[in-house]
Write a structure and sequence with these properties.
Rossmann fold, single chain
Length: 200
């Protein structure tokens, strides 16, 4: 999502405390200006060649326009409350350690809650491993009240076209390494029970 964006602006808040070096590396990689929310200013603006100032009621036009005109807004550790300063057209990604803040102030295209991390690590946050595609299709079919049928490989290719590769695969994703690194134990409903509760 970020790699495909034409322009990314970072909006950082108090949640960036202690992560200045990492924030500068992200901005350098994405070639992004960094806008500060008021509570993030002290953690973000020093020794920052990507700084374009504050936004909000006491912000600068540079911060305002960096958010309003970006293709993608990456919100890091902020619960910036002033909805009129968000872009209506941008893709919005929010990362916060407090899951309850995700999407609270603006619509999101992607929200990620991360309580702790190791710099440079890659995480896989799947709670279950090896959920068969048939089980997923059956759960969606139940909710939509449509039958789910099994297809041969040739029938699937005729029906799904290039999506056959994905529709016919059981991708056994694993979060074992993430669980070990972070001491994470997923809680909450599994994928199938979550799908059974969804409204399509």
């Amino acid at each position: 999502m970020l790699n495909k964006a034409k322009s990314v602006t970072i909006l950082g808040g108090a949640g960036c405390a202690g992560a200045h070096d990492e924030l500068m590396e992200v901005a350098k990689t994405l070639k992004s200006p960094i806008v500060s929310a008021l509570r993030g200013r002290e953690h973000i603006q020093y020794e920052n060649p990507y700084d374009v100032g504050l936004t909000g009621l006491i912000g600068f036009s540079s911060g305002y326009h960096a958010i309003k005109e970006c293709d993608t807004l990456l919100m890091l550790g902020t619960d910036f409350p002033y909805t009129q300063f968000y872009s209506e057209k941008s893709t919005i990604v929010q990362v916060d350690r407090r899951g309850e803040n995700l999407g609270r102030r603006t619509r999101l295209d992607l929200g990620l809650a991360l309580e702790k991390h190791q710099t440079g690590a890659k995480y896989h946050a799947v709670a279950e491993e090896g959920v068969p595609m048939r089980d997923i299709a059956e759960a969606i079919g139940r909710d939509l009240k449509i039958p789910v049928v099994s297809l041969s490989l040739d029938e699937a290719a005729a029906h799904f076209g290039w999506l056959t590769l994905f529709a016919g695969s059981d991708l056994a994703a694993s979060s074992e390494k993430t669980r070990k690194k972070l001491g994470w134990n997923p809680t909450g409903p599994g994928l199938i029970s979550d799908l059974d509760q969804a409204k399509f």
